[in-house]
Give the backbone structure.
Amino acid sequence: MSRAMRFWYRGVMIEVHDLVYEYPSQRALWGVSLSVQPQTITALVGPNGAGKTTLLRCLAALEPPYGGQVAIDGLDSRSAPREIHSKLGYLPDFYGLYDELSVRRCLTYAAWSHGIKPDAAAAAVETAARRVGLSDRLEARASELSRGLRQRLAIGQSIVHSPKVLLLDEPAAGLDPQARKELSTLLLALKGEGMTIVVSSHILAELEDYCSEMIILERGRVVGGKPIVVRKDDRPRYLIELATPRADLGEFLRSNGATDVIEVSDMRALIAFTHNLGARAKLVRDLVTAGFDVARFGESTRALEDAYFAQVAHEAAQ
Amino acid sequence: MNPEFRRNLWLELTPRRAILMAVILALIFVAVALSGGKDYLPSSAAETLYYLIVVFWGSRNAALSVVGEIRDRTWDSQRLSSITPGAMTWGKLFGATIYNWFGGAICLALMFAYTLSHHGTAAAVIDLFYFLEIGVIAQAAAMLASLAAVNRGQKHSRFEIFLYQLAGLLAALAVFYVWQAADPEGMARLGAPLTDTIVWWGQPFPPRGFLLVSLALFTAWVLVGCYREMRTELKMPNGSLVWLGFLVFIGLYIAGFDAWLSQDSQMADWNPVALRLALAATTFCVLTYIMVLLEPKDRVQFRWLGSQVRGGHLARAFSGMQAFMLSYFATAICTVALIFWLNTLRSEAASDQALVGSALGFLTRDVGLFVLVQTWARRRSDFSTLAILLALYILIPAILDGLGIKQAMFVFYPQATTPLWLAPVVAWTEAAGVWILTVSRLAISDREPLGQAA
């Protein structure tokens, strides 16, 4: 990659430009362009067959693009696929495990195969096992694990070498609520440690807890042409619901300079607002003082879903 | 230790399995010793078991070493690992078959001890070399076949896995034949004429030494082939030099057997240079057909090559050329050299020259057909091409022959014509037609995207 391109990619962990991918009988990706910032968790959403898995495989440098470019941490997927592999952790939607090996041996093999020296492998295995909550099952065989624990082991294998980028294809599929909660906690912790994570799913609710950005893929194209920021840690989304309808709710909120109104109706408003407790208390107080019959004020748990349908509706209107 | 080899050790050579193998083999040897009589000794049983365990079963395990990972959905994580292609190749080749080698080692030990005590050290060492050789080449050939199929994006049904295993078994059969041929007694057993020398490049060589060295060289090339296919799977560029090196090796190797051809009445008046050029050209031609059938015919790769040639980046274009392209160019160079050489030899060489020229034209047409059909029918395109070639070379000529129109055969395969120039002109016209269609199809498919993803 030329110096100029390295400069262009600087500060962006994943850069995709006009990516086209074709299977023998059909085109799966039609000029996809996107960029993902470091230390973010990006949701890759879309209906089944939208091209999510194909895009992830292109990002993982497992499939060469028919056209366009993919760069991971400044490395081009065509010219430096092995260098990209060393920076990646990838969990496919249908993954396999070595069922006859113990959890410790599965993780040890993953560590060795990612170039971790034998004397450092034991520590890496312990760390990965702790991260995915398998420290107490290191001697169990993979075939003896439940579905949720197998998923954790697969993720553990993907992160044992502390990759810069983690690509997860439908990681929560088939997990029970408790396992999903643990997955969410794990991903947030990995993000906190500096990892850039892309998670694909066709179920938005799975991604609500941890994704801050969203790429909507439909029929091999990015809807809206770019990723959507759905949540900022310093400005979460809040849902306000009134017991009595008021037509001036939007006007009132917009008059408050610190509030970004995302959606509003007579009964309900979705806003982005500061995380500061005092500021939130003041906003509620102002609403009540202004005679709004506030029945609910709380952080929105459907940020992705709201943003998804807003974007899809916007696209349809155009 | 190689992580891939270590993982295979964990999975394949567990203490329980090792004990099971050792006990069963020991029981068989004891049973044969007690009831086999003088004709079937434990060492004979060990030889049979070695072929079964290392060659037959081992080639299947080698074929499954990558295909099994794909089937069990663990291959992607291996491709994303930092294991080098070389380490992955030997880790899989000897790791996936480690259980077979364990059993084989027990059999070998028994055979070695028997040969040592009855025929001396030299015979024991040579036998040991042969048995190791046949095991390695069978397994490596099966692995090479499976890797070539993986790179082509083949499905891996039980039948296809059997075909990969069959490739290994055929390689083993070739080694077996060569070994028998290297042994004067073995030659007699095979019904082949007894010979005490092999003439190569005009020099006589003792058969056993010559064939064993040849065997070692071919095994090395099969291993190099596995390594290159593994590099492709791991998305590493291969370059063209290794295949070029193989072409030089195989061209020189086969060309050295000109003494075998010189007895052919049609070529009786050809001198050694012409015979050697003909042998090399035929070898390259066969390799072209094999490689154009086996290699993926990727439009992206063709487009990239075209852009490099148009941009004048010939060195880069050369490094990206596929094996079938290099083989074709090698065939063309040798064929053109042969045509010129024949001209200097005899005044009446025109008939041979016309035949050789039309053969090159048909090869050019057929290579174009493989690429052209791929642009039409992306699924099973190679089978379609083979069907077309079957029709062109066999079915239609057979029908014409039945109808008594024998004079039109030169349209379908190289044949002498009057006037002499007619056969090569027709062959090259067909080649030009196919290639014009092919290039225009590639250009169209480049401009027009395929159907929408589901």
Summary: The beta strands of chain B are 198-200, 203-205.
